Amino acid sequence: MKKKILNILKYVLFTSLGVGMFWLVYRDQDFTHIFNVLKNEVNYSWVALSLFLGLLSHISRTLRWKIALEPLGEKPKTSNTFITIMASYFMNLLLPRMGEFVRCGLLSKYEKIPFTKLFGTVVTERIVDVIMLFVLLLLMAILEMDKLIAFSDHNPGVVEKIQSMLSSPILWIAIIFILGSVIFYVKISKKKGKENKITELLHEFGAGIKSILAMKRYKAYIFHTVFIWTMYFLMLYFYFFSLEFTRHLNIEAALTTFTMTSFSMVAPVQGGIGAWHFMAEQSLLLYGIESANGKLFALLAHSSTNIFVLILGAVCLIILPMVNRKPTPKTAGSIEITES
Fold it and tell me: Where are the chain's structural domains?
């Protein structure tokens, strides 16, 4: 009961934070004008193309996850892997950071793979994606250093918050305390000659993380990583062509906007709502796009992408039990998949 209350409170808090940030960005906007532009002045062919590229990135992420699971002797169905990934996106839009747990939990349930193994590969996946994000930031610094400096000058509060978060002693004390407690418990248990659940879980979790070092198809893993982020970038770039006032922007403007909005996704709100819109508006402002138009672009790009994910994710959650009506047999040492 207490856990449910805490989850409800977290949901209300994160939702309120996201709605509050969204209101701060759009409180002075004429929504009648925005509605008329979205209805009459948007080239939705480019929006559809952007969403298609997003779908390709989801498929690529599915194949990348399957490659990461190969060294662990696990071969889940591609259909189940894709469906659980889409379900995780759906859940992240409802409650931030819950998607990864839902994704691993669902695949564990339907493919009989240990949750901790799956979660270890997802942690590795997130580390790789963070590396890609900093590669983009480096590329932006090389190509658009003046814009990066200008963004920092216009938004000193954002930079200060990032710096204070990373340098917070509370954050690092918490991390050290948690790691130290786990290590201490494991060592004490080993001295007593006891096998314990935490040791077993840590072993499976570590195997999931280390799977990237043991994979044979590492070139394919790298290809999918680059492909996923290329699709993400092109998604945003093609949105530029859907509106008259952003159609003239070059690929460097897309790189700046994409990089800045990507960093906004670390905010603890559903789908980066509010934070994403603010970063997009401020980035486009550097390229001469007036604030009102930047906000309109952000609303179109963010809303259409997330509505697509909500619909597809909801459908995937509904059909997941249907495509798994037949039990998945498991043999000793590996998982055998019976294709429907």
Answer: 2-158+165-325
